[in-house]
Write the structure tokens for this entry.
Amino acid sequence: MDFKKIIVENLNCGFLTKEQAYPMLGACASLDMGDYCLPCFRFAKELKKSPQAIAEEMAKNVSSEYFTAENVGGYVNFRLDRKFMAEKVLTEVYGGGESFKAEKPNGKTICLDYSSINIAKPFHIGHLLTTAIGGSLYRIYKRLGYNVVGINHLGDWGTQFGKMIVAFKKWGDRKDVEKRGVNALVELYVRFHKEAEENPKLDDEARAWFKKIEDGDKEATELFKYFKAVTLEEVDKVYKRLGIEFDSYNGESFYNDKMDGVIETLKEKNLLKQSDGASIVDLSDYNMPPCLILRSDGASLYATRDLAAAVYRKKTYDFDKNLYVVAYQQNLHFKQVFKVLELMGCEWAEDCVHVPFGMVSLEGGGSLSTRSGNVVYLSDVLDTAVEKAKKVIEEKNPDLNDKDKIAQQVGVGAVVFMALSTAKIKDLVFSYDKALSFEGETAPYLQYTQARCRSVRVKCGEPKLENVDFSLLTDDAAAAVVTLLNRYDAVIRDAAEKYEPSLLAKYLIDLAQSYNAFYVDHRIAGEREEVTKARLMLSECVRKTLKDGLNLLLIESPDKM
Ligand code: ARG
């Protein structure tokens, strides 16, 4: 409910139009002060009056049955009638059924490049953030009515595939790969590097095999496809657990035959310079190192493929925004790519956005490097969290049905929430104990609150929530919950605009804490019917919002916990 609109409709002051007043209205810092406030300082000069006098006069001229206004030190503080507020907000949230509906399609398209894993490399905890942030943004934009294209820009090209083939042919075994999947492939890759240190000839062989892949040789292509299938099968299992989906798996190799256009344009615009045999775009005017386009042997690079991919995405999807959820280590890469697009004359280059995030490490260590083979697999992290969740559930609620399913929801949810509740740009030290605590700022805490709202309703015999007396929800604790509930929409929008699901995560924690504070001193069951009904209405709105918000963060909400 947009209360700001109601307030500006009822302002009577000559020097300020409704349109001007609207954006100046902000939420009060604390509910003791009021609900919305409007600072009057900037009018002082023009009106030749003190801000206090202006605020005083403005407050006096307000007449509305829905709110009161008063001057507090040059601010007009507006206080909504709490019954009115509860009625408007709760009827709006409660209406429309069990879940919130997506907004009408707005006709805009967002390309969202996320997760973007590498073939024949482990899906490790380092991919958690891109996968979770991207997956959540995917749901958030859909909710807001965007047409979203989720793209897994697979790392499926490069000389390492020549190495993989050599290693596989020399030491590999299909049965073993079938059994152990990417693990087996990674071991082969690691072994290749060890042996190549002693025997540099292996590198020549690898180059030759890579050339064969490029030339479309049958055996090379078959093996290349095989590595890809093995990796994707494994990765898909993790995506299923996380509820992640993609509309396209067009990765680097997809652009093999789509780079000529880019090279043409670069030549036409006289942007391609030779440097030690390589072709580059000089970016020194922009204080950046050159963007490498073709190596001296004519091979394309990561950046070349990204240029082709961006052009392809514009042509295919006509995006309004083209987002890349990729770690901040690639800041320079994307700055270069976007600049080159701009120089190529793509006016839409400014619609390309790198959404960076920090690094993840495990509390107590654990290396993330592929070459040493010493990595923490994301699926192992999920398994461990699920196991630990199961133990907690056994302790807390041994009679629960469906313990395994709930342990999955809680364990996986805990990991994902930990990833999503930290501001993106901060490095994250992952801790199982913190993630799984039922008391901290965690998914289990939110899930537990949601489940409790549900069980309270059942305990009360699930009365129909009609003809609710909203005047029973006007105390401070209830008003605080109502105010937060009313902010949900704006929080989703803010998270979308700032590419920051953590804003939603924080909001859900605030909401749950505020509700739990209410719950502590407001009994729901066993009160007069009218009171029970009103409090249940509040509780139901909290439950629906928590469940919906968790879902936008890729997290499921068990009915019982
Ligand atoms: N596969 C890359 C990596 O793991 C990320 C790709 C991101 N997307 C892109 N269009 N460059 O580092």
The pocket of arginine is lined by residues 113, 116, 118, 153, 155, 306, 309, 324, 326 (CB under 6 Å). DSSP finds 21 helices and 13 strands in the chain. The CA atoms of residues 91 and 537 lie 9 Å apart.
